[in-house]
TrEMBL record, chain A:
It holds the Pfam family Gelsolin. GO terms for molecular function: SNARE binding; zinc ion binding. Belongs to the SEC23/SEC24 family. SEC24 subfamily. Keywords: Cytoplasm, Endoplasmic reticulum, ER-Golgi transport, Golgi apparatus, Membrane, Protein transport, Transport. GO terms for cellular component: COPII vesicle coat; endoplasmic reticulum exit site; endoplasmic reticulum membrane; Golgi membrane. It is found in: Cytoplasm; Endoplasmic reticulum membrane; Golgi apparatus membrane. Transmembrane segments: none annotated. PANTHER family: SEC24-RELATED PROTEIN, SECRETORY 24AB, ISOFORM A. It comes from Tulasnella calospora MUT 4182. One of its GO terms (biological process) is intracellular protein transport. This is WW domain-containing protein.
UniProtKB/TrEMBL annotation, chain B:
This is Cornichon. SMART domains: Cornichon. GO terms for biological process: vesicle-mediated transport. It comes from the Eukaryota. It comes from Tulasnella calospora MUT 4182.
Amino acid sequence: MEDPSQQLPPGWIAQWDETHQRHLFIDQNTGQSQWEPPALPGAGAPAPGPAAGGHTKRRQYAAGQTQAYYGESGVVHPPAPGDMAGNAVGGSSFFTPAGGDQPPAQPSGFYNPTAMGQGPGVFSAGGFVAPAQPSAYQQQQPQVGALTDQFSQMGLQPGYGQKQFALHTVNLVGAFLDPRELVGPPPEIRLPPGACVSQEVTANADYTYQRCTMNAIPTTNSLLGKAKLPFGLILTPHRSLKEGDAAVQVVTDQVIARCRRCRTYINPYVTFIDGGARWKCCMCNVSNEVPQMFDWDQATNTPGDRWKRAELNHGVVDFVAPTEYMVRPPQAPVYVFLLDVSQHGVASGMLATATRTILESLDRLPNTDNRTKVAIIGFDTALHFFCVPSGSTESTLLVVSDLDDVFLPKPTDLLINLTEARAGLETLLGRLSDMFVDTHSVGSALGPALQAGFKLISSLGGKLIVCTSTLPTLGTGALKAREDPKVFGTSKESSLLQAADAFYKTFAIECSRSQVSVDMFLFSAQYQDVATLSCLPHYTAGNTFFYPAFNAARSEDAIKFAHEFGEILASPICLEAVIRVRASRGLRMSSFHGNFFVRSTDLLSLPAVPLDQSYAIEVQIEENITSPFVVFQTAVLHTTSDGERRIRVVTSAYPTTSNISEVYASADQVAIATLLANKAVERSISSKLEDARDALSNKMVDILTTYKNTMTSSGGGASAALSIADNMKFLPLLTLGLLKHVGIRQSTQIPSDLRAYAQALLTTLPSQLLIPYLHPTFYGLHNMPPECGTIGEQGVIMPPPLPLTSERLERHGLYLIEDGQTMFLWVGRDAVPQLIMDVFELPAYEQLRTGKATLPLLENVFSQRVNAVINKTREMRRGPYWPHLYIVKEDGEAAMRLWALSMLVQDRGAENLPSYPQFLTSLKERVNGSSYT
Amino acid sequence: MLGSGWLFLFGVLAAAGLLFTMVFFIIMFSDLECDYINPIDLCNKLNTFVLPEMGFHAFLTLCFLLSGQWTALFLNLPLVAFNVQKIMNKNHMYDATEIFRTLGGHKKECFIKLGFYLVSFFYYLYRMIVALISESE
């Protein structure tokens, strides 16, 4: 019999009574004794009694069990055959086939209907198979208490471990890919039962915070090498919360429980031993003491329930960091605006829009305890400092024209407290653009301005926000217009994507050291060397925004910039952050992609963590993994914009497998595509664009070849089919999308600024934004079902997306193509006048103008629906981006038409880019060809 | 021949010096891997030695050229060409932002250079002895 003391609430001990041959339970605090095992405080159901076997170390309820079998997302996935809850319905015998009780399941919605095909026979562990509905458990909830015992014993059945992943092979050739499947969640994570101390679904971090390219980790490096899938983590630890998203739980304890050897934070995957007095680390198996106050609720000053603690039930938690996590008191948010006041900046209206947006955003800047500081520096051929004494409404302008040795003209009042000097700041921002309205100075001393801004805040840290509309031409960091259209499309093109001047790298490192982050807003109509300028945000964890040919006279341009700029200003930033990712023994983080500075082999330093930025980390298997599951834990130590030092800990666990089919069946195509995009961009900068493209298609061929050789019956021979797992069927299409993407594709036309910006986006966008960026969404608006564009249960109902091919374009149609950064409203040449009238308020198609536009909101239902769809498109994803809307006529301006058509990635593109069927054929030839050799 | 004896004595000392520089580089790289030093300090430290190392080696090669020591010259020319090419491509300096990505390559390069300096050390030593013997005869 298991020692019952291991499941006692704290303070209780169990004593063996010789005369009665049973345990006596004594509460040490009160002296009370009883024969019955004491219930754990706060338990929702009685704890399972001591049962035979070795698996009763923690409480396990029906919910915990079911979750273990279903992972986190039982809803959209096909129900796995042999549902446990279905068995339980049958009564006392555990493995009665319950097929008679439950109709065969039909997965709801459109996700993965083909996956049902596997049917019975997969789940052999129990010997019986019962198709059942995934919701069977929910229907049985009232009986949970009664079922508890059964379930806890079921967990002990030898061999009744985690369920197998069912692998469904599809033939890519001729397969219809429904774009809706792309937005679904990754394959479920099926942890072995008992891996987790919590029964909450939140115990594994949501995939929007952290996702792995494989949801079953190969146990050996050779298996990983055999599967050819890239192994990596995609992180978005600082994610914005939209309506309906659960807020991150906060733990306010003084002592943070961490492993004393590997410094892992306590998480739902640790095991409690010695009656709960110690916990065993899930990464390195060292046993650690549980902190004294762990079972004490400090808010109410009463004994708390350990099992309800946030860090044991949630994969994403924030710990409030005590003083030992601080090098200095938490810094306040500091914003220094470096504004281009040269003629270009003024004439394009950039300066006026920027100052107005700052003025309007003053209330939205994070400033909870009135510590936020702001400074404004203008630059053209000289530096213009604005000195605003606190309390005064007046400001003085100080001009420094010495660019070689930058100095601050005044020691105080340049960096001002937002609250104290609010009046003066408002007057200044209101007048600023008028002060320079007549300027004729052409030239940009961006480098010296950056140095001045850095000098101003180097002791504090903070954010430098740069708005510039020309190539920097003066002082340090001056750049040349190095772009040469002759180089486009050649192997030398990647040199245009590398930094031109070492200043931008060394300065970035200095900034990173002083906790200064740089955001770049670029506006030039001519070449601006985005590649070099985006180095600063890249290494200081900032954002780059690029508005080619910005002109505020066009209201669309002004709105886009004002929206994105305003969102960045209002977003709650994390300051002074470091990120470290820990993983179970045998796994090592090998390389890192994203906007940060790598400070040591596994430590990323980010002066500021912007909202919704994604990081990709490649993982290596260094030694064979013996544990049934592995844990990845990302810890972000940061200062919130409210001035609190916190640690965000994101923990997710994945089962391990030695079976290659499980590796394939659990692959997450979205995460793989995200990782491949990051790797391709890095490759294209460090080597050649061509190499990046080759590496991508070779990777695809490798995966398909291995898949064919190991998973299909055709083995080494040639076959007409091109097979891949159902859950990876979008991978070739996403790869093609990446190969055809502005950042990567072969072309002699793409200006390097656009390429560099696209590459910056490819490496920073979280998967939710990146996938539409690679594989745009395409809607038919003229024939959308009547409910689309109206408000449904989940907001505006979107039309069903179409496959990305121009075959779907009808001559009388109205279509929307969007990739999260731009939207195209495609109008067919035979569009009926009524449609044009309804949407654009114009009498005929001929009067319609191609280009950036704002749709009028008219007094008719169709116009309102179209507007609703467009607005929903702008809002539905996380991130600050506000896509432009372009109207494209089928027989209109050729450049615009080609641009819109280049979004339809399944088509043959310009400059001999293959169509999707062609791409598949070439892949198939290479797959078949390589198997002969 | 008095000149060649002195020349190879200088060569021996130079090779020993270069050898130690490489050992220093390798130690620093492993320090970085063990997190004893941060990449910024490492690059600042190493970058002060990169150009002197290359220059010293080039100077030695120049001495061989001027004194007509063709074997020694041809032994050293590939490395000089390699260094010149690196400087032309402007990637001779260690870049703190990329150092972790390129660390493996840097280490390999340092080990190869270490081996090369070791070989040249013994070669110069041999030539010095030969020169001294022939001088005493």
